[in-house]
Amino acid sequence: MIWNNATIFNEYLKNYIEYTGDNYSSKLLEFQNFLNSKDIKLSNNYIKQSIREYVKDEEYRQFENKLESDKSDGSEVETSDMTGIEFESYLGKVYESLGYTVEFTPASNDYGADLILSKFGQTTVVQAKRYRSPVGVKAVQEIIAAIKHYKANDGIIVTNSTYTNNAIKLAKENNIQLVDANELKKLIKNL
Prior knowledge:
By secondary structure, the chain is of the alpha/beta class. The chain is built from seven helices and five strands; from the N terminus they run H-H-H-H-E-E-E-H-E-H-E-H. The protein has two domains: 67 residues; 107 residues, Trna Endonuclease, Chain: A, domain 1, CATH 3.40.1350. The protein is elongated. The termini are far apart.
């Protein structure tokens, strides 16, 4: 029998991850044997990729729910408590709220951009810097490279911190928009 029902697989996958919790990778063989017993023949790589995608989507959903609950209770979202990926996801939601189409770049090998924004035929690359100290000139150099790589019209660096004087100077010389913690708070408040 050839299996082709993605809905059944997705339901099994969801139950498997909920059952195993953070130990899902150690129980992969058990899950694959279960699928085989149900006459579901999928490659190990396909199953692993599906698990990674499900876990990433679930983390994103949980993060969105946290943002919505923070927003609904009137409290300010505390970006310094976020991981780098959560900060990128948060910025994606902010820019979506501003009417941009948002595309996330890969977590590594991103060529200096974390988000690619599109609006009115213009493309903007964004680098997210969740730092405790001021963002330096390296971030500006990276976003300049990202503009060329992604053939973007312009670039923005967003941080929950501030910028060094050299970073500000280089950004100004290259028309890079810098959004610091205070400007980010104003941007969010106006949503």
